[in-house]
Amino acid sequence: MAEEINISLDLSDEEKYKLVLENAEYLINKHEPVITGLSNICALLNQTFEKISWVGFYFFQNEVLYLGPFQGKVACTQIPIDKGVCGTAASKLNTVIVPDVDKFEGHIACDNSSRSEIVVPIVFNGKLFAVLDLDSYKLAAYNEVDQKYLEMLAELIKTNLDLDSFILS
């Protein structure tokens, strides 16, 4: 089944996020593989926000974050827990917004052109499942609006996908 979603780039970020959430409900469901749904989430975010240079998921297993579905340049395949922005968000189980990655001690530069980042942990059944990572070539590209709606998207992912069935091997 082909999907086509067109969200105007002229809208405010908040308006875009509201449409992203509406469309995400139709793009992800428990009857399709988790990878399928998360891949579409990456595409939806990437085509909606010009400020995104990279968007993707890292799955948590054995104290390491492993690269999952993404859109953008090739990426780091493994990130140790508590390393970089992704590992920090994962270890603290809190969203981390970094306005200038050059000022974040221990930043892991998969793309040297990246300037800012937001990472949202996805906690399922009390355990870290994955993190959603967004990078930008712009300084201070992400703020509380991004945090609010990306955390809502993380909740939608937990509700609409069968995360219990996902096995990373």
H/E series:
HHEEEHEEEH
Oligomeric category: single chain
Low-confidence stretches: none
Strand content: 15-25%
Calculate Rg over CA atoms. 15 Å
The best one-word shape is globular
Q: Give average pLDDT, whole number.
A: 93
Number of continuous helical runs: 4
DSSP strand count: 6
> How would a crystallographer describe the biggest sheet?
6 strands, antiparallel
Describe, in plain words, how this protein is organized in 3D.
With 169 residues, the protein is of the alpha+beta class. It has 4 helices and 6 strands; from the N terminus they run ααβββαβββα. The protein has helices at 13-27, 34-48, 84-92, 144-160, and strands at 54-61, 64-71, 78-80, 96-98, 116-124, 127-136. It is globular, with a radius of gyration of 15 Å. The two termini are 28 Å apart.
